[in-house]
C-alpha cells in the first residue's frame, strides 16, 4: 500500500510539469496585454513601455519561459502583475478561507445528502423518496447566486440573525456553506439513492435478510459499504471542484477565496497568478483522486493495491 | 461662562454623565465604507483606478485637491503664481504640517515626491501625468518652484488629481520605491493602520493632523465588496455606513428604509459610440449623422440605465472645466433613413458594435442600440469585450488601416476634470491607437490646432473659447454618437455625513463625521 502510494506521488511530478508548460503557453496566447491593463486608459506609450519593462514582459517569450521555470524550481512563483505581491502570498491568504468553506459545505452536504439518498432508496416510490428527490432536484436547479441572495435577504437583512460578509466567526460560515453545499447535497442524494437501489437488489442482501438479520443492520452494514464506492468517487470530484473556489458564492458573500482571485487574474491577464492557480488546482485534483483510490481499499477490503 | 462654574460641579456632572453611560466622547467612532473594487496598491503614483485613489486620499494629500463638485482648492499649497509664458510655477506651501511619521512637510518633500515619479527607473504608472515637469527646485523651506518643458494649461488640475500625493521623504528613504506601496506615510487626516488585501484597508485618526478639529471619526475601514447587491444588503444590516456603486434596481428598496439616505449625484462619465471614420461606410458623414438620428437617447437612459442617466449634451459633459453644452441630437428615424439613402445605403448595411465593458448595463445598452439601429436597416452584431480582448483588438491595434474596430461603445471621465483630458486622448490625431483612445480615428486639423493651442494657453477666456470651437467642430463632424451622461448612485446611513461621491467617481471623505 505504501509502495503504491509513493509510486503515485512520484507519478505526480511529470503531470504537473506538463500542466505548467501547457498553462504557460495558453495564458500567453490569450488576447490582451497585461501591461496595458495595468497602465490603464490614461497611459501613453512611454508610460506603457515603463510598465512593460517593470513586469518583465518586454523580454522575448522563450526568455520569459526560461525565467519562469527556473524560478519555479527555486520555489518562486513570481509576483502578481496586478498587486506586485508574491503570488505565493496572494494564494496562501485565500486558500484557507476556501478550504474551510469547502470543508464545512462538504460535511453538511454529505451527511444530509446521504441520509436523504438512503431514505429515498429504502422507501423507494413512497413519500420520503418523493420528498427527498423533490428537494434534490430543487437543490440542483436553484442557482447558487439566487439562493445566496435569498438567504442573505431573509437571515441577514430581514431577521438580522447572521452577518452578510466576511469570514471571521462561525456565524459567517453558515450562509455561504449552505449556499455552496446545496448543489452538492442534491447530487449526493441522487447518487446515493441510485447506488443504494442497485445494491438492494443484490443477492447478498436477500441472503442477509433470509438469515434473519435486523433490517437496520442489513441497510447500514451490508448495503452502505457496498453502495459507498461510487458515492465516494463523486464526493472526491465535488470536493475538488469546491476547492477551486466557487466564483458565485465568493462574489455574493464577498468571501476572500481563490475563486475570485482566479476571475480577477484572468480578467487582468495576471499571468503568474493564473499559472500558479491552475497548477494548484491540478495538484489538488490529483491528490484527491489518490485519497479516493486509497479509500476504496478501506471501504471494500477486496480491493487491493500492489 | 464655563470657567465661572464651580470646579466641583463640573467634575460632578462629568461623573454623573459617566455613571449614566452617556459619555459621548468615549464612544469609538468607526466607520465602514463599502466600495466596488479592491485597491490593487496603496501607491497613488502607481494606479489608474479611481477607487484606489479614493482610499489613498485618507492618508495622502497633494498640493491641491478637487472638492466634491470637482473644483480645485489648495491643500498643502497656500497659493501659487505662474510666469507669463506658463512655464514656471511658484508655490507657497502651508507651514506647520507634519507627516504621520513626524517628518516636517516642506519644499524638500514636494521635490522628493515629484522627482520619484519623474525618474523613469521607478517605472510608475502615472509617469505621463507628470512628464511635462522639467525640474523641481527648492527656493526656501516653504517655497517650491516647478519648471515645465512646455506650457501646460491643466497643470494645476493635474496636481489636484489624487495621485499627485506628497509622500514623507523619510518614509520613502526607509521603505524604498516599491515597498512604500505597503507602508504609506502622508499628511492626511488618517494614519494607515492595516491592509488585508482581500478584506479591508483600515486607517485611524491622525492626532497631529494640521486641520484643527479634524478628523471627526476615530477610524475608517474601506471594505471592497465586489457584488452590487451585497453592498446594498450591508447597508441595510448596518454593517456598512456607505456603499458605492449601487445596483439601480435596489434604489426603491433602499429609499424606503428609514435608516438610509440615498443620493443621486451628477457624474462626468459620458457614454458614446465611436465610428471608425477610416472605414466604409463610416467615412461618410451622412451615415454617422444617420446613426445619431436613429438612437433615442431618452429611451436608452431609461432602459439601460434605469433612468440614472440623461442624454449627453455635447462631447464633454457638464462638470468638466470648459465643457460646452450642446443640444442632444434629436431622435428622428425617418431622417436617418433618408440620410442613409442619400449616402447610397437605401437598405442599410451590416456592421459590428463592440462594447468596452461586460457589465450588465453595458450589455443592455448595446442590445438597445442594436434594436434601434435595426429600425433604420442597420444590422449590427454586438459583442461585449472583456478587458483582455479590449486592449488587444482596440487599444493595441498596430495599423489604423487594418484596425478591426467599427462601432465601439465606450465611456470616459476626464481624470484632470478639465476639457483637455476629455478631448486630446479621445479625438486628437495624435491619440490614434495604439497611442491613446481615439477609436474613431478621427482627424481634423482645426480641432488638433484648437486643442494644442488651448493646452499651451494660461488664459481662462482664451481656453474656454478654443475648447468651445473644438467641441462644436467635433459635434458637427460626428465621429461619435454621444449617448448619455451617467449619474452616480450611492447611499449612506443616516448617522454618517461628509462623504460624497464626486462627479469623476472618486470619493470625498475629508470631513467625514458620524452623529451619535
UniProtKB/TrEMBL annotation, chain A:
Q: Residue ranges of the ABC transmembrane type-1 domain?
A: 95-292
Q: InterPro entries this protein is in?
A: BPD_transp_1_N (IPR045621), MetI-like (IPR000515), MetI-like_sf (IPR035906)
Name the CDD domains for this protein.
Answer: TM_PBP2
Q: Name one GO biological process term.
A: transmembrane transport
Stretches that traverse the bilayer: 9-30, 99-123, 135-161, 173-191, 227-253, 273-299
- Name the UniProt key words of this record, in alphabetical order: Cell inner membrane, Cell membrane, Membrane, Transmembrane, Transmembrane helix, Transport
Gene Ontology cellular component list: plasma membrane
Q: Mainly localized where?
A: membrane
Q: How does it sit in the membrane?
A: Multi-pass membrane protein
Q: Where in the cell is it found?
A: Cell inner membrane; Cell membrane
Describe its function. Answer: Part of the ABC transporter complex GsiABCD involved in glutathione import. Probably responsible for the translocation of the substrate across the membrane.
Please give the family membership noted in the entry. Belongs to the binding-protein-dependent transport system permease family.
**What is the name attached to this protein's record?**
Glutathione transport system permease protein GsiC
Please give the organism.
Chelatococcus caeni
